[in-house]
Every structure is written in structure tokens, then in C-alpha cells.
Design a protein that fits this description.
Length: 169
């Protein structure tokens, strides 16, 4: 399985080894503190291997997000559910040079369509640190609502539930 998703401005594809530099730069920066980072390069390398391996083990994973007409990743957005995750998640992070241009929103809308139409998920959440105001704003812009009854990934995390497939489609 090698799905390629398209939006008006973006192409979303499986991550590839050539995406390592951008991933490393993000995960070793303070900006990644809400995405499991501020990692050493060695830990970022293992995390990147996990991104690649998730596709092999689960048949899905975060998509590398590229501007249409290029094959250079500007971030990662999409479905995610490691074995210890309480529920399937839609996650996002965009490299710093491309933040604030609506790419995360555009990619997350397409990723949500994919998980509901192709993966047939009945529901999806986003786990968000309460200090991550930008992700909370994005989740709410996507129509996700705070689900106080859902099991958080980490104590204190907020769980935003995305609209049901029949509401979104």
C-alpha cells in the first residue's frame, strides 16, 4: 500500500528516508515539545524509524506533506495508532518555515477523509497537551470537540474527538 493524497496545494505520501533531515531538525528543536520531542539526534533517528515502521506494521501512518509540484516534505500529518494508544489518532506537525499558512489544516482535513473513507475508522481523536494552544485551535477549526470522557494518552492530555464520518463526509 502506497497511498498518495492530493489537496489543492499539497501532496501527501508515505514518509521516505529522504525526509529524515526535516524530521530530525523538527524533533531536535524545542518546537517539537508537544510532539514527543525535544530529542537528541539519536532518539530522533529512532522516532523516524518508528514513523517508517508504523506503515509496515499497521498499513497506515503519518503522511509526509509536500507542496504540490515538489517532493520535499514540509511536515507530517495523518493517522497514527501505536500499540499503546487508547484510540486511533490524527496528528500533525509542520516544519517551522511552513507554519501559519494553513497547511496543517488542509492536510488534516484530507487525512480525516482518508481515515473515514479508506481505513473505515468509526472515530478519531487528537491527543493535545493543554499548553499547545495552536493545536487546540486547529482541532477546533477541524470541528473536533473536547471529549472529557475519553482516555488520555498521557495524564493531563486533552482529547479532541473529530466529527463522526457521517458528519464530515
Amino acid at each position: 500500500m502506497n497511498p498518495i493524497l492530493q489537496t489543492e496545494r499539497l501532496t501527501m505520501r508515505m514518509p521516505q528516508p529522504k525526509d529524515w533531515d526535516g524530521f530530525r531538525d523538527f524533533m531536535t528543536s524545542e518546537r517539537s515539545r508537544y510532539a514527543g520531542g525535544h530529542l537528541t539526534e539519536a532518539k530522533a533517528y529512532r522516532a523516524f524509524g518508528f514513523e517508517l515502521g508504523h506503515w509496515q506494521l499497521r498499513g497506515f501512518g503519518s503522511f509526509a506533506v509536500c507542496l504540490k509540484g515538489t517532493d520535499d516534505a514540509i511536515g507530517m500529518v495523518g493517522p497514527w495508532q501505536p500499540i499503546e494508544w487508547p484510540a486511533p489518532e490524527i496528528g500533525w506537525f509542520i516544519w517551522e518555515a511552513h507554519e501559519g499558512q494553513g497547511y496543517a489544516y488542509e492536510a488534516a482535513v484530507e487525512a480525516r477523509r482518508y481515515v473515514y473513507e479508506v481505513l473505515n475508522w468509526p472515530s478519531a481523536v487528537s491527543y493535545i497537551d493543554p499548553a499547545n494552544a495552536r493545536s487546540i485551535t486547529l482541532a477546533e477549526r477541524l470541528g473536533a470537540t473536547l471529549d472529557k470522557d475519553a482516555q488520555p494518552l498521557d495524564p493531563g492530555d486533552l482529547v479532541y474527538r473529530h466529527p463522526a464520518p457521517e458528519v464530515v463526509l
